[in-house]
């Protein structure tokens, strides 16, 4: 099942089921995070259907926590001049950095001039837990989505820690589709692609993740309780702008498009402000 949160002319925060180019209303009348917490499987309500181009897709919801994995693809670690870490390398992004597909990634040029993309597979937690064992990890996964771990490279390098570089407003495009776990039997058999305008910049299999999803969930949940709705950004493959020769950074008018065929497309324009 593909779930989306959307607004129409009159209402916001509707939960729908996406089928092709049509979004169907569901029997669930609450919001998306409420749905995840309920454990209920929503049913299609055929009474209302919306052509995709007549609605606005929102971010699926605002996650309680966004746990990110750095350097989880060897070729990306290498292009950044880093060694692939033996243990998962964790950091966080703020919930307030989340935006929906089509919303602009914005930054002030007085803060950063090196804004970069990182297309990533996002894991949606559906069952809370602490000290989760790797062999039980998938029981805690509700489904999968897309994220862009937007990063200000100059701040990442100079700040000492990454709160500003990774946590600025609009720096976490998320969604728009959540695909439930049953539809993706192997999340390490997906191909993730990122385009900047017409240029394909990232294209890799999720099989290349160094630390796989069950081990990430086990490792993370030793330190933090994973709560329903928390998301894990599983790391980005090679092909970020910082690794290019010469480096390429985002500018006003660029559009970043992250896609996984089984999940969908996450697309955001860019606006560099004075
Ligand atoms: Mg990342």
Write down the Rg.
18 Å
The separation of the N and C termini measures 42 Å
CATH class of the largest domain: Alpha Beta
Write down the domain tally: 2
H/E topology pattern = EEEHEEEHEEEEEEEHHEEEEHEEE
> What is the mean pLDDT?
96
Fourth-level CATH superfamily of the largest domain: Fumarylacetoacetase-like, C-terminal domain
Which residue ranges are poorly predicted, with pLDDT under 50 across at least 5 consecutive positions? none
Class by alpha and beta content = mainly beta
Report strand %.
35-45%
Q: How many helical elements?
A: 5
Estimated helix fraction: 10-25%
Briefly note the CATH topology name of the largest domain: Fumarylacetoacetate hydrolase, domain 2
Main beta sheet strand tally, sense and closure: 11 strands, mixed
CATH architecture type of the largest domain: Alpha-Beta Complex
Hetero ligands: magnesium ion
Q: Care to count the β-strands?
A: 20
Can you put this structure into words, describing what you see?
The strands form four sheets. Strands 1, 2, 3, 4, 5, 6, 7, 11, 12, 15 and 18 form an eleven-stranded mixed β-sheet that branches. The chain has a five-stranded mixed β-sheet with strand order 9-20-19-16-17, with no helix packed on it. The chain folds into two domains: 2-58, SH3 type barrels, CATH 2.30.30.370; 66-273, Fumarylacetoacetate hydrolase, domain 2. The chain has 274 residues and is mainly beta. The mean pLDDT is 96. The protein has helices spanning 32-38, 74-79, 153-158, 163-167, 213-223, and strands at 2-7, 14-19, 22-26, 44-51, 56-58, 66-70, 89-93, 98-99, 105-108, 115-116, 119-125, 141-148, 151-152, 172-173, 178-180, 191-196, 199-205, 231-233, 255-260, 264-273. It contains five helices and 20 strands. 44% of the residues are buried. The protein is 13% helix and 36% strand.
């Amino acid at each position: 099942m593909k779930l989306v949160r959307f607004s129409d002319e009159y209402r916001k925060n509707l939960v729908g089921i996406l089928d092709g180019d049509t979004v169907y209303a569901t029997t669930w009348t609450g919001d998306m995070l409420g749905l995840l917490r309920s454990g209920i499987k929503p049913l299609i309500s055929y009474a209302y259907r919306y052509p995709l181009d007549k609605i606005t897709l929102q971010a699926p919801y605002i996650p309680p926590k966004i746990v990110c994995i750095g350097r989880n693809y060897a070729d990306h670690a290498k292009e950044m001049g880093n060694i692939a870490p033996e243990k998962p390398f964790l950091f966080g992004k703020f919930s307030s950095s989340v935006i929906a597909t089509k919303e602009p990634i914005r930054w002030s040029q007085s803060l950063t001039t090196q804004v970069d993309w990182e297309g990533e597979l996002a894991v949606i937690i559906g069952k809370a837990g602490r000290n989760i064992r790797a062999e039980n990890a998938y029981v805690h996964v509700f489904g999968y989505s897309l994220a862009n771990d937007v990063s200000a490279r100059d701040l990442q390098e100079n700040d000492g820690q990454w709160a500003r570089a990774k946590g600025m407003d609009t720096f976490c495009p998320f969604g728009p589709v959540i695909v439930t776990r049953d539809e993706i039997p192997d999340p390490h058999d997906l191909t993730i692609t990122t385009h900047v305008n017409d240029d394909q910049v990232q294209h890799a299999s999720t099989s290349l993740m160094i630390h796989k999803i069950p081990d990430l969930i086990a490792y993370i949940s030793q330190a933090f309780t994973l709560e329903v709705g928390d998301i894990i950004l599983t790391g980005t493959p090679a092909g970020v702008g910082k690794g290019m020769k010469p480096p390429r950074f985002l500018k006003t008018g660029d559009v970043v498009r992250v896609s996984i065929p089984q999940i969908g497309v996450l697309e955001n324009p860019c606006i560099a402000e004075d």
